[in-house]
Structures are given as structure tokens and as C-alpha cells.
Design a protein that fits this description.
homodimer, 456 residues, alpha+beta, Beta Polymerase, domain 2, Poly(a)-polymerase, middle domain, Alpha-Beta Plaits, five-stranded mixed β-sheet, four-stranded antiparallel β-sheet, globular
Chain lengths: 456, 456
């Protein structure tokens, strides 16, 4: 398939129809009206701003969640923005129908209206970066900057976003660490088009610093400080935020996600195909066959999770998996990989691929130097004891079976776990070389590396 | 048993009888006569010296090998000492009966006379340390110093030597690294008696430096240089040689052997027993039962060895065992311990205790950073490939069985082996959890840690 054909076909699927556009326009009109009305009723001098991909007209067809920011004058005390902003959000939410409170740096209202998710976020009405006081304040500036600079390349952004989603490199959530929508927009603005961004995958990485708004000239000291800080933290890219020289737009982009983009961009340019944008779901396979093929073992911990949003839960699951990896490797089990996720509404899982599930019944236990008080103690207390250099060693009986080892590690608090999971993981069900049916495909994707593999 | 009783009983066994003394005296007389005669015949101005425990009267009953040194005048060229010394040795050897050439720093003759081993070693007739030119030259000075300072404490030395033999801490050979006879003599001279040396096991270690001849006052610069050098090399003791301030008599003493002495001295003083001097041979046990108890595995390599003295062979066997330890641990097998030795007249063995003999069929293979030429290569060449940070990883198929792994490591020269063993080890027979009958007890002593264990 030719590049043009592929792109044309993708565009057909991702550019919103006139019908959808009309719906969105109407929606925005209604929401703005309601917001103004409610602000007035509460006697608040608040301006409603639409931000995000909807406001920038870079949303993908069918994906039109609304971000409505409620901007307070700069001289409003922060406490008032928090409280009265939430109050206003609730009032609007009530009018729209169902709503709930969500928590980020500050609480905000998440409502649903005409089947569309509407976030109502209090913020300051900032004019430039010097006014920024809360994390969300920049959004208004981002929207403004993109709209002023995109120059009709909205569909190029849509292509890039869809491509990044297809190759699993999209999303700036802390547990994804991929490309954000804003970063995609900046790259298109800077390099001209979807294809040009892809062609520059290697170049961009080598350049390292992207400065579309020329901050390095306008505010060299501040911008250089940003560059130095981010380079020191070994970030793959430093994209100086066009609206704030103190910020790296790509601060949360991981090397892994840039790597996916790096290889997939090249492959797509070599052999364009729809598959990159819309990967056909894996048919899956037999995880037990995969275990046999590799000669490895799978242990799965299933446990209840407290009510938590993914943003909070997923990093804690990962932290716990890493904790097991470290603790088990100290115990002589090699962890070849791990995988975590939700299991149903109230449970989560940690999967660990291990080199074995049994170990010797004895372990060599290094002791102190022999000529110390502790050395003489160690000598007295151990039956089989010997020296290597000046250090004493002894044979120590240990649990041999992986389940016993894991239970003991948990009992002795020797696994670093996510802080809200400490208690619940202790009561985990531990499965060896077996997962319940709903996790079979997950286990297969994990063990076969299709999940994180670059070639799938 | 009281200390006095034990000591009395030991002395009875280790002090030579009048009969033995008479035999030794006669032997020495004869040997001296023959040596003088042969030197004269060859027109050599050589003085015969008896050195070692026989000459110092510190030999253990029944253990009366002769060290006869053939001392050349200091103005003899080294080459002449080597050649004519060997010639003289051969002449004496012929007169005595059978003999062979042995190799140390210089070749010497090892003869047998009246069922006693007689070493005939060419050296210089040195007056003090400034004259020392070859490693053996000091022996004459050692003998002289001990005889001048021992003050009739010969049996105290015998007790200490027998004790050190009993606890397996005696012998200065490079593959033993224990206490030498000369070191035992110095300790008795310095601390007064066998029991006093034992009582000071901790004190001596803490003092670190023993200077019986007062070199630190007489030659402070040279002696301090010796102390600094040996302390830097982390030797357990620095015993400045009474006849040479440049030398640490305990240079070859290992921490392990001092550790044995340290604990056994204390135990003996607490509960004196003959067992320390004459350990009753272990009855041995079942090595297979030991493997089952520990849940570990034993692999044994049997291979031919070239004709080599123990001094050369044993360090090479140890080096090879360490080589396997390192190579196998890189391959994911934990080596809990190793053991080496001769097997019959022409073979040697390396035993390795392992945590397992099978591993997964796949290994995680770390590759280069993704954005390099090598990274793109790695990506192309591997099927299952993923990123951790900026580094690529791939799944690699590996041999799973220990025999295949060892064979492959040897084929690819990935095991550091003793230099004369490289070829022969490649043809080794590899046994898993089985040893031939003559090695069964050796395997048991190794696996049960009775061999190196401090408590046996």
C-alpha cells in the first residue's frame, strides 16, 4: 500500500464528520451558557475556557471529552479558587446530571452530559507563565498557543496521535509515560507534518533540545537551566514549553516509549500500513505452552485493592512488582519479567516470570569477620561453619518452595510494596503456573513478550 | 582430661625416642661424610649444612626428612652454583642410591637413603641477610637463629606443630597457606611455650606485628617498609624474619588458617583433648544422602593431568575450579562450593556443588542502546526484543542442561583454567550427582563441609 493511500484511509477514520463537529459545537455552546449562568448565580467573576484537544480541534473522531476550565481572576486567594471553584463545578455538574469529585493537585468535578465526559477544573486566568500558580493553569496558554500556531495542520496532529496510540506510545499518564497530545501538536508545528515528524525520529533524539518558541534566545538563563536540569535527569528529549521556559513538555516521556516511536517510525516509512494506526488485536495464545517453550515459571499474586484511581494504583502495583523482583532475586530466584494490572473491579494482580519455583534447602549465609565479638557468636551459634578469607560462613536452612518463600518474605516485611497495598498483598492468593481464565490472555501476552515487545 | 595429661600423652607420641635420635645422628654423620668427600672429588669448595627441623631438633617423631644444603662461597657466580651444585647433588645422590631432580627456584636433587628422603640443595654460604641471593639461602641463617634462641623449648615447638597439623593449619606450601615450621619456632621463642602461644591467639592477631629480633629498632626504615607492604596486602600477621628485616615469615599464612588456629586454640584451652592433635579420621558418610538433605547437586569433572608436582598442579586445579565458579554463575548456576584434588596417579578432579542442573531454555540477553548502529542491528536480528530504559533486550535460546552448558563453555574457551590444564579439561568426563567409588568419601567430606568446616 502506498503511503498516500494509507494516510487517506486513516484520515477517513479519525477526522470527525461534519455531524460530529456540529454536535461538539452545540455541546460547547450549551456548556458555556450553563457555566456563565451558574457563575453569575454564585456571584463569581469566573471566565469559562475550553481547553484540550476539543478546543484545539485536534481530537480524534469519537473521542470528544470536554475540558472546561473555570478561570478565576489572578488576585483571588488560592483557597478561594479551590473551594468556590469546586462549588461552582458542583453547581454546573448538578445542572448537567450525574457528576463525581476527582482528585488531582486540587479537587475538581467530573460530570457527564449527553454521554460526553466533562471535566470542570478551577484555575487562574493567567496571561503568561509568570502568572502560573497551579499545575493546570498552563492549559489555557497551551490551547491559545496551539491555535495560534497550528496553521490548519490539525489533521497532521490527528495522524500523529493515532499513530502513537497504535504503537502504544501515546499518553502522558505517569503509568504510561508516552507522548502527550500537546507534545504531538508541538512536534507537528515544529517539523511541519506527520510524515516529517516520523522522518526526524533519529534527528530529534540527537538534537535533544526542541525550542519552538525560541526561549533560549528570549530567556536564555531560565531556558538553559531547564535544559541542564532535564539533561542531567537523562530525559530523552527536552522540549521547552512554548508558553513556559521553565518546563520540559516531554518531562514524562520515557526512553522506552521514545524507542517504540523510533523503530516504528522507521518501519512505517519503509512499509506503510494501516496496522501501525489500528493494530489488529492479537489472537492470543496458550500461556502454558509458552511456559513449556521457555522452560520458565509464572507465579501470580491476586489480591483485593482499595478504591483507587489508576493513576494511583498502577504505580503502586509496579512498585510492588519491583519489590518482589528485588526480594526474590536476593533469595536466588531470577525474575525474568513482571506484569501488573487490575483483575475485575476489586482485585489486582502481579505476575512474575521466574527461572524456577524450587531452590536448594540450604543457603550459604555470610557472617561477620571471625576475630570479632559477633564472629565468635556466629561461630558458637552455627553448626556448619567455615572461613573464606577473614569472613565466617555458615549453612542456613531455607524454605525451598516459591510459595513458602513469598509468604515468608511478606510476613517478614521484606518486600517493598506500594504504600496502600501493604496489607492487602499479604493476604494475596498465590498461583503457580496457573491463572484463572480471565487472565489467560494477559498471561500469554506477558510471557510471549507481545505486551512490551517492539515487534508486535 | 586435664591439660597436663593431654600434653604428656601427646609428647609421648611426638618426641623422638633415643633410638630414633641415634639413628638420625648416625645418618647425619654419614651424609656429611659423603657430601664432603664428593665435594672434594669434584674440586668444589662447598660446605655442607644441615637445615630444617632435623638440624633444629624440632622434628616430630618418625618425620625425619633431611635437608642438606650445599653452600658455595659468596664469590661463586650464580650460574656455577646452579650447575655445579646440581652436579654435586647428583654425585651424592648416586652414592646414596636412587634420586631424582626436583624443581624449585633452582633445580635440586631429591634422594632416598636408608628409607629417608634427603634433599640436596645448592645455595650460598651467607653470613647475614645482606648476602642473600637465592630464596633458599636464608635457611642456614634460620637454623642458626633458632638453635641460638630456642633455649631447650624444642618440645614446645613439637607440641605446636602437632597441634597445627591436627587442626589442619600446618604447612607453608602455596596450596596450604598454613603455619610453617619456622613460624612455629618463632612463636614459641617469642611467647614462651605451646600453651602461651595458644593463649595469645587473639592478642597476636591484634598486635599484628611480631618482631622477635628487634628489627624495628635496628633497621627501622627497612623493617617499616616490610610492615607497610604486608599490611597493605592485608596479611593476618607480619612476623619480621629475625634473620632478614625485608621478609614477613608469615607472608603465606592465610586468614582461613589463622582463623582455624584462632578458634581451635580457644576450644583446646577450654576443653583440652587429644583429638586436637590426632583427630580421629571421619568415618565418612553417604554423599548422595548429603545431596538429598541439602537439595543441591554435584558435578564432577575427571580429566588426565600432565606430570606435575603438587606445588604446581594444585594451584592450577584451584584456578580452574574458580574459573568454573565464575563462568557458571554468569550462566545462572550458583556454585555453593568447589573441591579439587588428584584422582589416582594420572587424573585429577574438580567437584562443584550447584544449586541446580537445569535452567530455563531462554535467557534475557541485554543488547546495546537502541539509537546506535549496533542497536538497529540488534533490533533487526532478534525476534523478541524490547526496551528497558534506553537499552534493548532480547530473548536468547540457551542450553538448559548443565553438561551441555559446561561443554559449550569449554568449547568457547569461556572458563579460566590453569595454564597446563587447558587442553585436558576440555576432554573431561562430566559426572552429575555421581562419583566413582574411590571419590565417594571425598565427595561426602566436601558436601558436608567436613573438609573445610571449622567444627570438624
Amino acid at each position: 500500500m502506498e503511503m498516500e493511500e494509507v494516510i487517506a484511509e486513516v484520515l477517513q477514520k479519525i477526522v470527525p464528520t461534519e455531524e460530529e463537529r456540529a454536535f461538539v459545537k452545540e455541546l460547547i455552546g450549551e456548556l458555556e451558557g450553563i457555566a456563565r449562568e451558574k457563575a453569575q448565580e454564585l456571584g463569581l467573576e469566573v471566565k469559562p475556557y475550553f481547553v484540550g484537544s476539543l478546543a484545539k480541534d485536534t481530537y480524534l473522531a469519537g473521542d470528544h471529552d470536554v475540558d472546561l476550565f473555570l478561570a478565576f481572576p489572578l488576585d483571588t486567594p488560592l483557597e478561594e479558587v479551590r473551594e468556590r471553584g469546586l462549588e461552582l463545578g458542583k453547581e454546573i455538574g448538578k445542572t448537567l446530571g450525574e457528576y463525581e469529585i476527582a482528585y488531582a493537585e486540587h479537587p475538581y468535578v467530573r460530570a457527564k452530559y449527553r454521554d460526553v465526559k466533562v471535566d470542570l477544573v478551577p484555575c487562574y486566568d493567567v496571561r503568561d507563565w509568570k502568572d502560573v500558580r497551579t499545575a493546570v493553569d498552563r492549559s489555557i496558554l497551551h490551547t491559545k498557543w496551539v491555535n495560534e500556531n497550528l496553521n490548519g495542520k490539525n489533521n497532521e496532529v490527528r495522524l500523529l496521535k493515532r499513530f502513537l496510540k497504535g504503537i502504544k506510545a501515546y499518553g502522558s499518564e505517569i503509568y504510561v509515560r508516552g507522548f502527550s497530545g500537546y507534545l504531538s501538536e508541538i512536534l507537528v508545528i515544529k517539523y511541519g507534518s506527520f510524515v516529517e515528524v516520523l522522518e526526524k525520529a533519529d534527528f530529534i533524539l540527537r538534537q535533544k533540545v526542541v525550542d519552538p518558541a525560541g526561549w533560549l534566545k528570549r530567556e536564555p538563563e531560565i531556558a538553559m537551566k531547564t535544559v541542564r536540569r532535564e539533561v542531567e535527569e537523562d530525559k530523552p528529549l527536552v522540549v521547552i514549553d512554548p508558553v513556559d521556559p521553565r518546563r520540559n513538555v516531554a518531562a514524562n516521556l520515557s526512553w522506552e516509549k521514545y524507542g517504540r516511536f523510533y523503530f516504528k517510525a522507521d518501519e512505517f516509512l519503509q512499509r506503510p500500513s494501516l496496522e501501525f494506526f489500528f493494530p489488529t488485536g492479537k489472537t492470543g495464545g496458550d500461556y502454558l505452552a509458552e511456559l513449556r517453550r521457555k522452560g520458565t515459571h509464572l507465579i501470580t499474586l491476586l489480591f483485593d485493592v482499595p478504591e483507587m484511581v489508576d493513576d494511583l494504583l498502577f504505580p503502586q502495583l509496579e512498585r510492588s512488582a519491583r519489590g518482589f523482583e528485588k526480594a526474590l532475586s536476593r533469595e536466588g530466584f531470577e525474575v525474568l519479567g513482571w506484569n501488573t494490572g487490575r483483575y475485575g473491579a476489586e482485585k489486582a494482580f502481579v505476575m512474575l516470570e521466574l527461572d524456577r519455583v524450587e531452590r536448594p534447602r540450604v543457603k550459604i549465609h555470610p557472617g561477620p569477620e571471625f576475630f570479632t565479638e559477633r564472629g565468635r557468636d556466629f561461630y558458637r551459634k552455627n553448626e556448619r561453619v567455615w572461613l573464606v578469607g577473614k569472613r565466617l560462613y555458615a549453612e542456613k536452612r531455607v524454605k525451598e518452595n516459591i510459595i513458602d518463600v513469598v509468604r515468608e518474605l511478606l510476613e517478614k516485611n521484606q518486600v517493598a510494596l506500594g504504600k496502600n497495598l501493604r496489607e492487602t498483598v499479604k493476604g494475596a492468593e498465590i498461583l503457580v503456573d496457573y491463572v484463572p481464565r480471565p487472565l489467560e490472555n494477559e498471561a500469554y501476552l506477558f510471557l510471549s513478550r507481545e505486551k512490551e515487545g517492539l515487534k508486535h
